[in-house]
Amino acid sequence: MTVNTREDIKLSNAQIAWRAAQDILDGAYVNLGIGFPEMVARYQPPGRQAIFHTENGILNFGEAPPAGEEDWDLINAGKKAVTLKPGAAFFHHADSFAMVRGGHLDVAILGALQVAQNGDLANWRVGSKGVPAVGGAMDLVHGAKQVSVITEHVTKNGDPKLVEKCTFPLTGVACITRVYTSHAVVDIKDGHFVLREKLADMTIEELQAMTGAKLHIEGSVADLVVPEL
Amino acid sequence: MDKTIGSLAEAVSEIGDGATVMIGGFGGSGAPIELIHALIDKGSKNLTVINNNAGNGRIGIAAMIDAGMVRKMICSFPKSSDPRAFTDKYLAGEIELELVPQGTLAERIRAGGAGIPAFYTPTAYGTELAEGKAIAEFDGRHYVQERWLKADFAIVKAHLGDTYGNLTYNKAGRNFNPLMCMAAARTIVQVSKIVKAGEIDPEHVVTPGIFVDRVVEVANPSQEEELIRAGVAYAAPESQGAQA
């Protein structure tokens, strides 16, 4: 039986990033994972300014400089050239990860291959072939007050990414607190997925069919409303 | 006291075969490219190299790997925009890899410099990178025991260095460098400018000179990213013709 994964209505990556950005409060200290999560920085609501942390030792970095004006000692964790905002600070790697594990960050947002209903995350490798590379992923899932994932709801093959138990190698155990997907916002609470928001043009049954574990309902489920971007 | 030294070749002259060498930098940021290339010129073999990455392109650590100098890499992320040097050797079984989460790598180096033989961290608990390691529970959470990392040598890049070895860094080029300075038996630093003792405000010293043994000046250090964009491949002088 083929599940209808509602590709017709799904949010774009920019829209998923926008939704995640709405939950970041003014003055929050935030680490965004390399790649897709970096998009979240573009969609801070007006009047709010988060302070972004990059694990290679900067707080309050900003946009890329114009081409030709890069200082290649001033990069982010993705090795891209960045600039500084007023009030920026440098620090060495041990202090940087003390900020992470020590509970000083408010929010960390990562990508995912799979998220399990107990909050386990798999996002660093698919199997045992090739060159393994973990970077800071296993550290970043520990310590922040909110550790969120942004992701498509299903894989390109239509397989669920929200699952009962991860089958890919784990990045961390019981570490994820919230998942923003192309179709829904889901919290992880007491070992369960709790559905908070879903796209208005789909039913809970349709969303459940494309989810690999039970979606629990507590009270009402809000519409996931995102602007055109 | 004067820790300054006149040439890159002299600065790396003690790094012999089989040494464990911490190399500073995060990607190209803070990477001591000139010291690495001087080490390639020396041609030491069978090295264990500790760095966040495992080289990029055909320069720096990648060129060391290409030259067959590296027996083992201890790193968090052996990938880059051009990871061929490490990837080819790794897939051929010609280089050993100890993969360490980035924050654990930093803390292991810090611990090595601080005289702390082991510590517990939440990082990697329940994952394949914690296999075989001691686990302990503190206040209801599980933690993985990790051991210190020390090295025979550290080679790092800083910005200013004085004759006593006090250092400042350039922006995010700091990264692993202050930690590696602490964790090696001998620390060799390339700086953009050597100044007299007293010219760095003590309030601004990031690495105190007690952690530094040798300081060599490289006035306009190469940046890995710029060398890669220019298509540079580094090889020791006697073999440059063959590589060209």
From TrEMBL, chain B:
Alphabetical list of InterPro entries matching this protein: 3-oxoacid_CoA-transf_A, CoA_trans_fam_I, CoA_transf_BS, NagB/RpiA_transferase-like
Gene3D superfamilies membership: Glutaconate Coenzyme A-transferase
Alphabetized UniProt keyword annotations: Transferase
SMART domains: CoA_trans
SUPFAM superfamilies the UniProt entry points to: NagB/RpiA/CoA transferase-like
Source domain of life: Bacteria
Pfam family, one: CoA_trans
NCBIfam families registered for this protein in UniProt: pcaI_scoA_fam
Cited PANTHER family: ACETATE COA-TRANSFERASE SUBUNIT ALPHA, KETOACID-COENZYME A TRANSFERASE
Similarity field: Belongs to the 3-oxoacid CoA-transferase subunit A family.
Protein name stated in the entry: 3-oxoacid CoA-transferase subunit A
Lineage, uppermost ranks: Bacteria, Pseudomonadati, Pseudomonadota, Alphaproteobacteria, Hyphomicrobiales
